[in-house]
């Protein structure tokens, strides 16, 4: 019996979620709060009620990690992102690594091979020039490692006290192979859900150096460019339904966004989600849920059941997918909702976070 069959198992009677409510803080905010940038419900409301109506357009309405479109006969993907992490350097990476890998990964989640990036530096008056040089060098090295070229850029300086040293913005463009159509709306009942490795590592790594916390062992960020891993998966089948890198809001936010976009239910096996011991210990100590902690070098894939075994095997043969695991499946019941089967045999709702547990981690 394959892992795919094992994880799914016989479906129990569908839980009745009619009338379920969850207390949440008042979200009718007259001013922007930190949670609006956390990738949760507040971020979603900002996009849905402010930005999307103001901008319009069918491409934006897809709300994917990047927009895929045809231009001049070429199928392209385009994405942009901003990075405000504190501290600028942390175990396993830096704001420069995040800027490159984050944008490359957003393109990869459409199946695109990243080609060119732009880079904007927003510098605070008084920041040390050698520090700016370190960030630039890290960014350039990450770009070379990911096989992309920084093609254009910009620099702005804000008054002392109006910034936080260095902020970065990157945009990227890449080519989408023929026959590839990866987007959140394609998730469907029967899809197998695979995560490419341990979750929560990046958020805990940043938190450990920001707040001076000791967890008994150094936790390094999982920051990495995932383009090569996605190419490996596409070599098995171009018919991957959904890819998402669970950054802000963590795995929980990514799964909820997909469930809502495709109007499907998602069931995960809580024990199957790979959480390394240092992350689990840190989260237990601080009262956090690893499902909501950001990642910067992991992806979650929704794969047709017929291809899932082969895709999982290919992922495990790639350096960035050795710990890949099947964590659940798409179902017809409770559309738009994510639930987890617990080790005690119960079922709990995995909701979209309101804001964020750990601010300023990407």
TrEMBL record:
Residue ranges annotated for the PurM-like N-terminal domain, each copy included: 65-176
Family matches, as Pfam families: AIRS, AIRS_C
Domain spans labelled PurM-like C-terminal: 188-334
PANTHER family: CARBAMOYL DEHYDRATASE HYPE (PTHR30303:SF0), HYDROGENASE ISOENZYMES FORMATION PROTEIN HYPE (PTHR30303)
NCBIfam families: hypE
Homology family: Belongs to the HypE family.
Protein name: Hydrogenase expression/formation protein HypE
Organism: Streptomyces daqingensis
